[in-house]
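Email to the structure team, subject: TIGR04222 domain-containing membrane protein model.

Hi all, the expression group asked for a predicted structure before they design truncation constructs. Nothing fancy, just the tokens so they can compare against earlier work. One-line instruction: predict TIGR04222 domain-containing membrane protein, return tokens.
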Amino acid sequence: MAAIFRRRVTTAVPALDPYDIAHLAGGPPRVAETALAGLRDRGLVLVRGSRVRARFEYAGPPADPRHPVEDALIALCPRGRGLAAVLAGVAKDPVTEAIGHRLVSYGLRTRRRGLTRAGRRRLEAARQAGTLPAYVFEGPAALPDARFRATVTAATLPTGLGKSLLRMAKALDRASDSHGHGDTDGGSDGGHSCGGHSCGGGNY
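Reply from the structure team: attached below.
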């Protein structure tokens, strides 16, 4: 009896950008959270309470080229919008959906969106490299700024829990304002910044 050998055709996986890694770590919601944190760190969006607004008036250093996911987020809040709605909108945006399809084609996700063995290896390699912010892997819980962390976490929780955390975030806002910070949420308080295509580090 002749033996039949099946050859598995594999496609070489190109370098992954930070939003590919975010998708591997937490799916579409993590992509949205990563975009929000990166844009805030670069001063391109302002988060106040439960709302987020694009800062077209920002006059800081020239920004890095924006990733399509970041453009999608900015397009959702030109004059301010609820943070929960913006995060949900980015998570469902065709740009984010395309990341998932691409990861499936690379053999890093299954068609049911679980991670393959190769996907888990790539995610762990990116984590071990240490060049991406912790929030890419761990989500809002790893955001270094306490009030921003509470605000984003509130936007991702059921209504009751979210409102409780939002009250905490507003209290932190008021405390910050009383120290003269004005109409800014303070940006990043240290660590990596997830800006543009680099997100604080190279590709993986």
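The CA atoms of residues 16 and 204 lie 5 Å apart. The helical segments are 18-41, 68-76, 83-92, 94-105, 117-129, 134-138, 146-155, 159-177. Ping us if the truncation boundaries need rechecking.
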